[in-house]
Amino acid sequence: MIKSVLTVLARDLDTVAQEVRLYPGDAALWAKVDGLGNPGGNLVLHLAGNLQHFIGAQLGHSGYLRDRDREFKVRDLPRAQVLQEVDAAARAVEATLSTLDPGDLDQPPATPEGGGRTLVHLCAHLAYHLGQVNYHRRTISA
Does residue 136 contact residue 36 with C-beta atoms inside 8 Å? Predict the structure, then answer.
């Protein structure tokens, strides 16, 4: 199961990075769209922070300290800086899940789902917000 989760998360993080690169410019990442709660830039920072926290810090003991409020409040970061966060999340996922012992999933859960369900939840969470990023990008590019 861990290998499958690693494969899915790596694939979807690659897609997040592709979406960021497809925005027509840095400012477009932060464009507000009526009816959408968050611009793509904030969603991407949220995804990166979420994975660095729950996989990197909670499971991998990376020492990452999450600032969830910042993920949604910061604006106007350059695309390169946003991509650095995606890359950091991808590295945390790879480093942790490639060496994780299945028994580690029996430890006290980082989320209410607990254990392996936490990993499934993180895949679903990433896919959900990736869809929102894609929709935001297509909306502002139309």
Answer: yes
Class of domain 2-141: mainly alpha
3-class state of residue 133 by DSSP: helix
**Whole-number Å distance between alpha carbons of 64 and 74:** 18
73-111: per-residue pLDDT in tens? 999 999 999 999 999 999 999 999 999 888 777 665 555
Distance separating alpha carbons of residues 29 and 94, to the nearest angstrom: 26
AA identity, residue 136: H
Confidence of residue 128 (pLDDT cuts 50, 70, 90): very high
| Domain ranges (residues) in the chain | 2-141
| Residue written as token pair 């995804």 | 47
| Chain position carrying tokens 């999340």 | 89
CA distance 139 to 56: 32
